[in-house]
Structure formats: C-alpha cells, structure tokens
Design a protein that fits this description.
The protein has 280 residues and is an alpha+beta fold. Helices cover 45% and strands 16% of the residues.
C-alpha cells in the first residue's frame, strides 16, 4: 500500500529543476522531499548510521534517501558487524515512536471512563488501553485470555478502532457493545461467540478514531501503556506483565537518578556549599 502511495505521488509531483549532484543538508533534503511529495507528511529528517544517507518518515513510514537527493530506499537497514544482528530501522522506528509517548499519555488522561469498556483487575497493578476491532483475530485471542491479564493485575480498558471505518459493519458491532447495559458481557459475546447486539446511542467512536490517527496506531489490538508507550499488537499476559514490570523498574531508576541530581537534594546542596568555601 505504501509503495503504491509513493509511486502515485511521484507520478503526480512536479519534477525538480535539476538533479541534485552535491551533498544536501537536512533542510535541503526536507525541501526536496516536500517538492517531490506535495501535501504529504514529511517528518524526522536526520542523518542515518550510513554516511551519505538520511532517514525520514513519509506518511508514517520510515525511508532512506541519499544525501544528493537522487535515491530513495524503501527497506530495512541491518547492522551485521556484530554477532547479534541489529535491526537499525526498527530501532529508529521505536525511538521515534517513544517521542510520542508523553503526548499519548496526556491525551489518554482526557478520556472518560464512561467512554470505555473496562475489565478491571481485582488486584490492579497496571492499566492498559486497548484499541480494538471486533473482527480482528488477535483482538479475539487477547479477549479470550482476558482473565490471564486480570489475574496478573492488568486492567484492560477498551477503545473502539473499527478498521473498516465508522460506517462499517465492524463499527455497528462495536456500537452494539457500547450501547449495551452490560458492556462486558456484550463484548465477550461478540468477540468469542459472534453474538452481536443492536445499538442506537451516541458513541465516542469518532473521537477515539481521531486518537488512532494521532497516536500512529496502524493495527489492532493497539495497546497504549500508562506512560504513553505504544505496543503495536497482541502480547500474551505473562509477557505483558514482564514488560510492565521492567518498565516500572526503569522508571524508578530514572526517578532515583533525577532525585539524586536535583539541586534541592541535600547531598547536592552540601557539595555546592563545600565547593564555594574552597573558592571553586
């Protein structure tokens, strides 16, 4: 699909006045790409791990371009210099995705509980926000294993992501759930038994689909963690809990480091005072 987009845009774009022959800087690369892909979203133009090659994001997908502006590369970059092969492209995608985490966290804090279908863990330790589609096989699998999540202290908060669109049959099935008095039962019946209810009420689907686009969610289940990190797909409950525990551990370590370096930390204050006495 993305290759079709590129071919279409190239066929419609205005050719450059002349082929580039010298190395271009980031601003010149961006300007050249904007000229070649008018109206498209061009983001995160930056030097890549390979000299004379830039990486950039076009319509949400990662690409590479030579620094003379001649050659566009659609593919993975792998580092094979070490025993463990690194997927450099995936690392870059993850890095760029994490830059959106604070925004996702802010936006999710605005979502009201009444606009969600919530399966609350009895001994809640973590909360995950899951953009779901009734006709998605992995969404069905995840819901089938919901008690595995709940028993591990992971609350599931469902948002709607009918991939076929707001006017699709998938959206109608989701509407039957959101309009039901017993939403949890309706969700389970729809996903596991293919029993769909009729619905006729105001739903938050348009707003939630807007978040899908804003968050950069491509498929279902799209899982947003409490810190705003995005997991693009199903994970078994055990792996999810391990990932959440590791994330919590990393956050505590980062907070401890921040506290130690804080100007108000007594140890830092005493050190500064000692240095002042020494005239340093």
């Amino acid at each position: 699909m993305k290759k079709l987009f590129i071919l279409l845009m190239l066929s419609l774009s205005v050719p450059l006045a002349s082929a580039a022959s010298k190395a271009l800087n980031e601003d010149e690369i961006r300007a050249m790409l904007e000229a070649r892909f008018p109206g498209a979203s061009i983001e995160h133009v930056a030097p890549s791990e390979i000299n004379s090659l830039y990486s950039f994001v076009l319509q949400g997908d990662l690409y590479y371009i030579s620094d003379d502006g001649k050659y566009l590369i659609d593919g993975k970059m792998l580092d094979i210099s070490t025993e463990q092969i690194r997927n450099v492209s995936q690392e870059r995608i993850t890095q760029l995705d994490q830059m959106k985490s604070p925004m996702r966290k802010r936006e999710m804090a605005k979502v009201k509980d009444e606009d969600l279908v919530i399966f609350k863990a009895p001994n809640e330790k973590y909360v995950i926000n899951v953009f779901t589609d009734i006709d998605c096989g992995y969404c069905q699998k995840m819901h089938r294993e919901r008690n595995d999540y709940l028993s591990r202290g992971i609350t599931i908060r469902y948002l709607a992501f009918p991939r076929a669109g707001l006017n699709s049959s998938s959206a109608k099935k989701l509407e039957g759930i959101w309009c039901a008095k017993d939403q949890q039962t309706a969700m389970t019946e729809a996903k596991l038994e293919r029993k769909y209810r009729e619905g006729n009420c105001k739903t938050p689907f348009a707003e939630q689909m807007s978040l899908v686009r804003k968050f950069g969610i491509r498929g279902t289940p799209g899982i947003v963690l409490e810190n705003g990190d995005l997991i693009g797909g199903y994970l078994p409950a055990e792996i999810m809990r391990q990932r959440l525990d590791q994330l919590k551990k990393e956050q505590k370590a980062e907070q401890k480091k921040t506290d130690l370096e804080s100007p108000s930390n007594p140890a830092v204050v005493m050190l500064k005072q000692a240095l002042l006495k020494l005239g340093l």
